[in-house]
Amino acid sequence: MKRGIIAVAVVLLGFVFPGVANAETPPGCSSAAQIGSTAYVKYRGNNIASVKQFAGCGSNYSYVYMWESFRNSGHHWITQTAVAVYSSASDSTPDSHKGGSSNPYDPKELWSKPADTLDKCTAAYGLVSVAQDDNFTAYTGKRC
């Protein structure tokens, strides 16, 4: 009986908090864990994607998850992600982007390639290019 109630509660939470990213680990690195807070790509005032940074297996990774509400909106999009690298903690503009990945076919999620940047100040970068509209981006908080 308790298991049934718990299962129903978990399903209902999925309806209460739709579109929350449930990323676990990048492909090929089960020990990676999220570092820093999640950033959100906005489109017309609404969150359409989550952007996260992970560290593990000697690398940093960036991750973009497209929210279900946007995936079901009828729009088409291209997603790009990379690890943004900064010279110092005080810099506001990244010097470069490492491990870039892109997917032009309305992806649900996208991981960057591993970036050898654990000894640098980094942030995850996510870009969503909405067809016949514009590019929308977000950076997570910088981690040094």
Helix % is 10-25%
- Architecture in CATH? Sandwich
Radius of gyration: 16 Å
The neighbouring-strand order within the major sheet is: 1-2-3-6
The major sheet is characterized as: 4 strands, antiparallel
CATH fold type? Immunoglobulin-like
Explain what you see.
The chain is mainly β and 144 residues long. The protein has a single domain (2-139), classed as Immunoglobulin-like. It is 13% helix and 46% strand. It is built from two helices and eight strands; from the N terminus they run αβββαβββββ. A four-stranded antiparallel sheet has the order 1-2-3-6. 33% of the residues are buried. Residues 1-21 have low confidence and may be disordered.
Topology:
Blueprint: H1 2-16, E1 33-43, E2 46-56, E3 59-66, H2 68-71, E4 77-86, E5 96-103, E6 109-111, E7 121-130, E8 135-139
Antiparallel strand pairs: 1-2, 2-3, 3-6, 4-5, 4-7, 7-8
